[in-house]
Amino acid sequence: MTSGFSTLLxxxxxxxxxxxxxxxxxxxxxxxxxxxxxxxxxxDPRVTTVxxxxxxxxxxxxxxxxxxxxxxxxxxxxxxxxxxxxxxxPPAEPVAAPAPMLPASAPxxxxxxxxxxxxxxxxxxxxRWQREEEQRQVHDPYPLPVRWQSVPxxxxxxxxxxxxxxxxxxxxxxxLSGRLDEIVAVYRRIPSGRLVLLGRSGSGKTVLTVRFxxxxxxxxxxxxxxxxxxxIGSWDPTVIxxxxxxxxxxxxxxxxxxxxxxxxxxxxxxxxxxGRVLPVLDGFDEIADGLRRPALESLxxxxxxxxxxxxxxxxxxxxxxTDVLTAAAAVELTDLTLDDLADYxxxxxxxxxxxxxxxxxxxxxxxxxxEHPEGRAGANLAAVLTTPLMVTxxxxxxxxxPGQDPAALxxxxxxxxxxxxxxxxxxxxxxxxxxxxxxxxxHEFDPERARYWLGYLADHLTRLDTPNLEWxxxxxxxxxxxxxxxxxxxxxxxxxxxDCLVGLLxxxxxxxxxxxxxxxxxxxxxxxxxxxxxxxxxxxxxxxxSVRMRLFGxxxxxxxxxxxxxxxxxxxxxxxxxxxxALHGLSHLLQGAxxxxxLRAALGDGLFYGxxxxxxxxxxxxxxxxxxxPLDIRSAVNPVSLLQENSRTVITQLAVWAPAFGxxxxxxxxxxxxxxxxxxxxxxxxxxxxxxxxxASALGGGLGYALGLTAWGQxxxxxxxxxxxxGRLPWSVVAFLEDAYERGVLRQAGAVYQFRHAxxxxxxxxxxxGRGR
Length: 773
Known about the structure:
The protein is an alpha/beta fold. 55% of the residues lie in helices and 6% in strands. The protein has helices at 4-15, 20-27, 31-39, 47-57, 61-75, 107-135, 159-162, 183-188, 205-218, 242-253, 267-273, 289-300, 312-321, 338-344, 363-371, 376-384, 388-399, 418-433, 447-464, 480-503, 509-534, 557-586, 595-627, 639-673, 687-709, 711-725, 733-742, 758-768; strands at residues 147-150, 178-179, 194-198, 226-231, 277-282, 306-310, 329-333, 545-547, 628-630, 746-749, 752-755. The strands form three sheets. A seven-stranded mixed beta sheet has the order 2-1-7-3-6-5-4. Helix 12 links the parallel strand 5 and strand 6. Helix 2 packs across helix 3 (31-39) and helix 21 (509-534) packs parallel to helix 25 (687-709). The two termini are 61 Å apart.
């Protein structure tokens, strides 16, 4: 139960606009201390600690006294004064937003409201994974058998811990054997509610977790937690705590849970903190090698019931480095048997016409496996068809595709090893997924071209060493020089054309084409150099951003960013302005002017433009830094919505930046022209010239910045221009990615796409072989 001190501390912290982490860092105490004081878990704050908090919050004298008085009342007596520093606390770590402090006067009404939210979440989860099962044809004609067996004892905790027995109690292992339709019953036999599902690639872990969630939801009562699948491979335990990550993922996948809850937190945070969510963590093996140990240690720091899936070797390696998952039982998925294949495969294909109605095209294959298991063909095929992944691929290629005979799998001339058989199934899977179907309204992509494009995407992910296909990083697998060249060329063309179109309103065609050519070439060069130092040389990508005004921030970092951008703008303007002015002056040679006259014009124009553009570009770049804030990519519903949101962000930025840049350049031109040295001679400059320069600068500079230094602009440069132009991707990239998702080749994980199977990604990447790089 909360106290007056808890409420007061929380109110002062929020008024100061500080997170728990920020207050802990500024006060020099542990973040767990802050959290405990605000939730009521710590009932005796020391006076020294309270004073540190008051200093960090910048409280007025009356407020300090009020906070100290509340602390004294909370503890029942004044805490002892001490000259020693506050008690040592664990190091600060990011945590979830605090659970809302529910008023004690109406707990039943609020509990009922939270139960309603949990019910709505359960409905959304059920609908999502029901569609996933239908897309994967899990129940067509019936789910493949998935069984499991016990694992070595070193991969499980003590059974006394798993069974939550008191000290000194006798304990025996639990019987956890079962099959797909028994997974919920098996899980409910585990008192700790913590289970690890191990299985090699393609063994059916994801199918099992989906079935677990759906069966749980079918028998769920309002008091039960809602099982939710989380792809744990995206979690970095060194950056964000487990509960905070769960909250962020819930908000990403179910945006309605971002709504405010009583106490100022979010509905997602409340559901996590109150134990109304059962985490089903899929893909522990997908966490980076160096993060598996801290991830397991962080999971062991909680008592939350959970289900965790992983490949056996990765989980065993993490256990060897630290410890098993506390209080967790573990099982390992087993291979499919010949009886499983004999029951399943014949029911996936059509009956033979005429003759025996029970005969199917799979009979020769099953006969070979049964009667000649030691033969070369039978042994190779038996080694492949042991996982649900390969069986579903075989079904897709031979049962679902007219005119295909599965007896071809017995051809040892074509397939001399299990690996060649696997590659054959993977190779034909994409062809099968993209074959035309009568009445199919999806985009029609040529299977060979689609496989080439998918191969490029798989190779791209392999080079970046990530399973996440992020649209804003589609150019990052290219060489840094290639990225810079592509950006510079596109900026050059766009700014050159823009300058020509604006100038044609007042100048001659020949003169303006020359002016646009100079502006484009110089802008491409300067933007290319700027892009190299700000992006390409760091091997980074321009991340999506949002628009929000921030004058000051923690540690003064936003202000330093503004100053940094302002200096970049000044240097950019100086380089472009002086270079353009010099070229503009020398261009008079083409009109027959004397060399000395051209040199004087080059010096004068270089001085003029070299002064005007820094005065405009510096403040304009600073304004952009003021408006720009990092976007929480994890909160995106899907890749397309994030792309659309970022495009709106860029439009908003340009709506502010372009006019500001144009006005600054245009207005500064008049000031500078009246202060030019007299020896430069008279200048023919008027309002029309200022308007033309301001308009061309606003449009050209804005488009150049958007294309070179924003995530959406880089998407346009690479995904919409460069990669389609070089044949690596289709022109309609979004349509292609969405189509691949609908065909089951890709899947969505929040703001990113992933290949449906890691094995498929690896095969396509090898097949692409770096062509078209």
